[in-house]
Design a protein that fits this description.
- By secondary structure, the protein is of the alpha/beta class.
- It is built from ten helices and ten strands.
- The protein has a six-stranded mixed beta sheet with strand order 6-7-8-3-9-10, sandwiched between helices.
- Helix 4 crosses helix 6 and helix 6 packs parallel to helix 7.
Length: 266
């Protein structure tokens, strides 16, 4: 039997899709029954009050929750028609296809150049590394600022530059999808604007999912928005509404969404 792979895809309608996805930590159901169809080369924002499972849901897409020993999933996450949680799917392969940028910039304790080259090397990159480093830094709108500092420590960069370096490091391994968990929450307004502008450039080549508490940011940058809330008395988070961002922010179909985006709740 041929092993399932996400390396030789079909031509899917969506970048990634969840079907009745529930995520557990031990016996606690943190996220309940999520059904999403994420559009290719668009930005999808996941919003909702603290504690409703936004980051847990985001991390499920590239199996980062696997690092929590008690975590498990029910349902499916489909990419190119393949369930990413099938037993014969390698989580490392999933993370090559679905990169992640975290809330706090986390460059490696290496040079700017090696921050980009290291991941590419361990993933078997065979091309010209200098070209990949330049291409990745250009892709993250950072090349002009660091091209004469490539052998300097990444820690010498500002917070905003470090976050763009982490984005460059992510795109160096050529993913299809980029997950961003509050990528600008630790940054000043000018750096936040740079990240938001960069996202608009990146979506020409990548599908982006972003968790954000900033309603203005979600409205500015995203094409689609998923609204999460706690489910009944269970304290489980679920998606209560998923639609075009403009509709979510101007004509939401759920009163709870309206109350949240207008600041009357949360």
């Amino acid at each position: 039997m041929k092993e399932n792979s996400i390396m030789q895809p079909e031509a899917p309608q969506y970048a990634i899709e969840t079907r009745d996805l529930s995520i557990f930590y031990g016996n606690f159901e943190a996220v309940k029954g999520v059904n999403l169809k994420i559009e290719k080369q668009k930005i999808t924002a996941i919003i909702g009050p603290s504690g409703c499972g936004k980051s847990t849901l985001l991390r499920a897409f590239n199996r980062m929750n696997d690092f929590v020993p008690t975590s498990r999933v029910q349902g499916e996450i489909l990419m190119h028609g393949t369930n990413l949680y099938s037993r014969d799917i390698d989580p490392v392969e999933v993370r090559r296809k679905i990169g992640m940028v975290f809330q706090k910039p986390n460059p490696f304790p290496k040079t700017i150049y090696d921050n980009i080259a290291w991941g590419a090397k361990i993933n078997g990159f065979k091309g010209k590394m200098d070209d990949l480093v330049e291409q990745s830094l250009r892709g993250a709108a950072l090349w002009d600022e660091v091209k004469d500092k490539l052998k300097q420590s990444a820690y010498a960069l500002s917070g905003g530059q470090q976050q763009r370096l982490c984005i460059a490091r992510t795109i160096a391994i050529q993913p299809e999808i980029i997950l961003m968990d509050e990528p600008a929450s630790a940054l000043d307004p000018i750096s936040t604007l740079r990240i938001e502008e960069l996202m608009q450039e990146l979506k020409k080549n990548y599908t982006i999912l972003i968790v954000t508490h900033n309603m203005q940011q979600a409205a500015r940058v995203s094409d689609f928005t998923a609204m999460m809330m706690l489910y009944g008395e269970t304290r489980s988070g679920t998606v209560i509404e998923y639609d075009d961002t403009k509709k979510i922010f101007t004509r939401p179909g759920d009163k709870r969404t309206e109350d949240y985006v207008t600041g009357r709740f949360g």
